[in-house]
Design brief:
Elements (H helix, E strand, L loop, with lengths): L12 H15 L4 E6 L3 H14 L4 E5 L7 H14 L2 E4 L3 H11 L6 H23 L1 E3 L5 H6 L20 H10 L4 H5 L12 H5 L3 H12 L4 H8 L3 H13 L24
Parallel strand pairs: 1-2, 1-4, 2-3
Helix pairs in contact: 1-2, 10-11, 11-12
Length: 271
């Protein structure tokens, strides 16, 4: 029964994303795009798709490691960027983190706060680069992360474009395999790299393979009870996923504005 709710990679995904990138870069009169390279599959895939769509010379990859980033990972990121032929720079964020600690105090053992700070520092560096070089900040978030609220507001969620935003995580892996991304990237456990040993699935409490099936059911407007029946799993497991979608809906919306006039931004004045 699980095949009934199995996300599939659309056969036209690569072509649509390529046209999307070309259209938005042209409309913005931008010189290209900048991508934060983490060593994970999402950023690797975005960099590859952008290089294919725009040409490598119009793509800048930034590696933004913290003090804990393994030397082997930093080397792998640089080598991958070189293999794509894109422009590449590494900007360590530790001095900026230290400045935050001096100004505001250390988050200590609050790993969520520290992780959010890292994500927002990286966002600022990406936008500074984008401004100087007339680029669009091209995000790496996928549909699973967006629906689950698994991103930092005004951190990795602060971008100009989300080319993978309508692809579930399992489809990201499928597209990565189709494009022949390096095995080391395809096999690495998904992680935001916000603290040592952190993985997405461990933090979420369920696998992407399971979550994507539930999310597809919700996309098709099925009730959690129907999804649980189709997947043959206990209802509470489905509800854990659907509850995250509801809890973090604020991350997917612009800041609310009270209505005081004839047309209000975000209410009945939409761009």
């Amino acid at each position: 029964m699980t095949a009934v709710l199995e996300p599939r990679l659309p056969p036209y995904a690569r072509e649509v994303i390529s046209a999307f990138l070309q259209e938005h870069v042209t409309a913005a009169h931008a010189q290209g795009c900048v991508v934060g390279l983490s060593g994970g599959i999402d950023s690797a895939l975005v960099a590859r798709l952008a290089a294919d769509a725009l040409g490598p010379q119009r793509v800048t990859g930034l590696s933004l490691p913290d003090a804990r980033a393994p030397a082997a990972l930093r080397k792998e990121i640089a080598e991958y960027a070189t293999s794509l032929g894109i422009r590449f720079r590494e900007l360590p964020i530790t001095p900026i983190e230290d400045a935050f600690d001096q100004a505001l105090g250390s988050p200590g053992d609050d790993m969520v706060a520290r992780g959010n700070r890292k994500a927002r520092i990286r966002m600022a560096l990406l936008y500074e680069t984008a401004h100087k070089e007339r680029l669009l900040v091209t995000g790496t978030g996928n549909k699973s992360e967006l629906l689950l609220g698994y991103f930092t507001k005004y951190g990795d969620g602060g971008v100009d474009l989300l080319p993978l935003g309508d692809l579930y995580k399992t489809s990201i892996f499928a597209l990565g395999r189709e494009l022949g991304l390096p095995k080391s990237i395809l096999d690495a456990p998904p992680t935001a790299g916000l603290w040592e040993g952190q993985t997405d699935e461990q933090e979420l409490g369920f696998t992407y393979a399971f979550a994507d099936r539930v999310l597809l059911g919700l996309e098709r407007l099925l009730h959690p009870e129907e999804i649980a029946e189709k997947l043959g799993v206990p209802l509470p497991e489905v509800e854990a996923v659907s509850r995250r979608v509801e809890t973090f809906r604020h991350k997917r919306r612009p800041p609310p504005i009270p209505k005081l006039s004839q047309r209000t931004i975000g209410v009945d004045w939409r761009d």
